[in-house]
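Quick one - first record:
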Amino acid sequence: TIVMRARKIQRFMAQPFHVAEHFTGRKGVYVHIEDTVRGFKMICDGELDDVPEQAFYMAGTIDEVLERAKK
C-alpha cells in the first residue's frame, strides 16, 4: 500500500508545467498550492487507493484525476 501510494504521488507530482510544454506537448496549467496539498493528503490518507495509477500522470488537480478515473 505504501509503495502504491508513493507511485501515485510520483505521478501526481508530474503536473503539466508551463515550462515543460515544449517537451511534453501538453498545455501547462497553474495549480494553486492548496489544491496540490489537498490531493497529496488524499493520496497519503488512502482516499484514492481505488483510483488507477495512470489517472494521476500529468493531471493538474486531484479533481482532474477523479474525472479521468470515471472514464
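second record:
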Amino acid sequence: MVDMSLYAAFLVAAFALCVTPGPDMMFIVAMGGRGGPAAGLMAAFGVACAMFVHTVAAALGLSALFLALPTLYHVLRWAGAAYLLYLAVKSFRDRSVPGEGSVSGPGMRRAFWQGAVTNLLNPKVILFNVAFLPQFVAPEKGHVWEQFLVLGLSITVMGFAVDGSIGLLSGKLSALLRRSRRVARGLNIFSGTVFTGLALRLAATPK
C-alpha cells in the first residue's frame, strides 16, 4: 500500500504538472482545433492510455532497461519526430471545408490512436516516469509494483480530466470558428505548425 503522506505530496505535484502547458497539451489543443470536441477528447484519452502503459513499463523495470540502450532511445526519438511531421503534413494539406456545424479532421478512433502513438513514441515520457514516480514509492511498505500502478493510475486519471477538458473546449471553439472557410484553413495551418514544432522539439532534445 502507498504511504499516504507521500501520496498526498504526489497528488499536489501531479496536479501542478497536469495543469502546466506541455507537448501533450499542445498536441491535444491542435487535435481539437483540427477535428472538433470529439477529436480533442479522444486524443486526450489516447495520451492518458499511453501514459498508463509507460507507468506499467516503469513498474516492470522495462523503462530503465530501455534507457540503458542509447540506440533504442534515439530510434524511438526519431520515430516520434517523424510521426509528428507526418501529422503536420496531413494538416497542412487538409483543404477540406466542412459544412455548417461539422468539422473536418480525424475521426474519434484515429484521434485516439494518434494521441496514443505520439505519447508512446516520446522517450521524454519514459525519462519522466523513471525520474518522477520512484520519488513517491515507499519500498518499506512492500508491493512496490502495486504502488507504481496506484501512482500511475492517479496521474493518468488526473491528466485525462485536465487534458480532456482542454480538448473539448478547443474543439468547441474550433467548431464555431470553422464556419468560415478562411478560419477553417487557418486552424489547419495552426495544427500543422504545432505538430511541426513538437517534432522539431523532440528531434532536437538530447538524451
